[in-house]
Amino acid sequence: MNFNLKEAIEVLERTPQSLSYFLTGLSEGWLRCNEGDETWNAIEVVEHLIEGEKNNWIQRLELILSDGSNKTFPPYDRFAHLNNEINVPLEEKLQEFSILRAQNISKLKKLVTPEQHLELLGTHPVFGSVKLREVISTWVAHDLTHIAQIIRVMAKRYGTDVGPWIEYLSILKK
Amino acid sequence: MNFNLKEAIEVLERTPQSLSYFLTGLSEGWLRCNEGDETWNAIEVVEHLIEGEKNNWIQRLELILSDGSNKTFPPYDRFAHLNNEINVPLEEKLQEFSILRAQNISKLKKLVTPEQHLELLGTHPVFGSVKLREVISTWVAHDLTHIAQIIRVMAKRYGTDVGPWIEYLSILKK
User: Fold this and answer.
1) Measured between CB atoms, does B165 come within 8 Å of chain A?
2) CA–CA distance, A71 with B47 (Å, rounded to integer)
3) Shortest CA gap A28–chain B (Å)
4) Which domains does chain B have, with CATH numbers?
5) Chain A interface, mutation test: which of B49, B57, B162, most A Cβ atoms within 10 Å?
């Protein structure tokens, strides 16, 4: 096991600001490109990250730590953000993500005492029994997955432009 | 073709600061993890990006734009950074990368007039004839490849920790 709460929070607290710095001011060509039908562009990924802050991670942790007997996570719609208001500028979305994330990290620190809570169990509707520390680890890995997705989508925009160098750039072939 | 110089520079100028924000202050566990023997950790990737600023991208563009008749790129050692001084703190390396990148973007803007230069040719020792715009496109895609690499390496550190969620996180299986 590599997980520890302090290191997990290091990543969680860096994601919004790193994405803000990287994405703010980019041309529409970078922000709107995707990998084809049914795939997300950078803006849609940010919206999905916001959705997770609103309706997923902290709710699951709170449920595991609650006194209730039923600890089955309610269904989570991974595509809910695709119905969002689309006219909000990206800068405002990034700002919203930053604020929600800061609030959730603050809640996380208050909720979880590592020595007591990491092995507590909840029930995932598909996976069955999962540990609190697995939820937090997944929160971190989910951030990293979606940062990598944004970067990959942007790189692939230059898949043809790099000419023969595509041989050396495996990201463009994924 | 998606390449245009202004948009390419948008990415090139964001990479150092984004990496600085993301990596500065991370625990050694995040900074030193890799994908096994002969693979790079985040610090080694930053060193590799520095090497490219010193000895690759601008030199190739200058050669293409030079008056000489031989425009064959000199060999470039992609592993040169692995012999570097290892006791320099990461913050100093990130600072060096930022300074070199800013200088090189400044040179790029002075060197290249898009209307005149994008189709000019150089000779790659393996690929043969390559266009100036392909060199710049590759510089951008190379940044994105290595940002994605850092993110992927870090994500895989939690490959076991996420428990059953590995099914949903394809980055962990790469």
Assistant:
1) yes
2) 47
3) 10
4) 5-172 (1.20.120.450)
5) B162
Closest residue by Cα to residue A52 from A150, A144, A142, A129: A142
Interval A119-151: pLDDT, tens: 999 999 999 999 999 999 999 999 999 999 999
Nearest CA among B3, B22, B41 for reference residue B152 = B41
The C-alpha atoms of residue B15 and residue B21 are separated, in whole angstroms, by 10
What ipTM was predicted for this assembly? Answer: 0.95
Q: Which residues pair with A122 in a beta bridge?
A: A130
> Tokens 């690499």, residue?
B149
Q: How confident is the model at residue A77 (pLDDT cuts 50, 70, 90)?
A: confident
Cβ-based neighbour number of residue A56 at 10 Å: 21
The closest CB to that of A171, out of B21, B145, B161, belongs to: B145
DSSP letter for A131, please: E
